[in-house]
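Class, carefully examine what follows:
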Amino acid sequence: MGEDSRNRSGCAYPFSRWHGLSSEEELAPTLLTVVSTEEEFDWSQPFDSRHRAVRAADRIPLAQELFDSAGVRPVYVVDHPIASTAASIAALRPIVDSGRCEIGAHLHPWVNPPLDEVTSPNASYPGNLPAALERAKLSELVAAIEAAFEVRPRTYQAGRYGFGASTAALLEELGFDVDLSASPAFDYSADGGPDYRFAQARAGWFGAQRRLLSIPVTGAYLGYARKLGPALHGAAMRRPWSWLRAPGILARAGAVERVRLSPEGFDLDSLRRVTLQLHSEGSRVFVLGLHSPSFLPGCTPYVRDDADLRRFMDLCRDYYEFFTRTFGGRHRTATELFRELSQREDPSA
């Protein structure tokens, strides 16, 4: 990723100083499970700072049972409503205290004080905020997490994957080690967010000192025309082709399909295929991403009822089995991987 990498809004690509791991192909296949642990809100409606309900936090123990059964220590990246509400703290704190998970920070600007901005789609990407306001919000979130869980988060994921021009310096200043904000193959620039269509699904070092570790949420274009994926899929998503459901036509034809490694909106075959393709291309670090409200039926489009929830959890189990059986793969948290990689190679070299 070069210094001149741009998204369509003209902003510099977040990881312009990104450098791939020199030893990635020597790693055992490694899977991180990252749970965006957040309030419930209607994803189809405007952002509203009053929507801070955390009913789904009651399902965190259910989610943890799933992870425990698979030998997974998930990374719960928590936002301000989760870190400042007694019920959600009570649900998550015993898991934290038992060492069965890792806690990171997840910044949803519209519900994270100070609420000094005008709420809008553009401002929902934290990297679009003025640097001082982004810093104030993330500092407030870190303080809330420390107060709630008595741990200082070292892992960050921007809400809506909204990493911006000032974010890297802010993460370095606040002592973060790992960023999970990149979302390869996905473009959020229509309402002001980053364009990750050309981002690599590979871990790498970035920042002024090259000591921050970027671990993207795994995603890629599949199909025989995948090298043209950014252009073909991007065109298919725009009118009038989107009206004709062109993305689905391209996928069914085997030409181009965009897949994220997530049980939300993707089936087991898709998760297997994206993993196998990226592994064949040299990737050894993978991120399975999901949202905590998906464990409460009716809170996300992916789990509408109890039957959906059973399928959702079975899909996670089946993918974990595939990953360990096919590759002899292993599970790690973000900071565990950071420590391992820091010992294996010099990020600044």
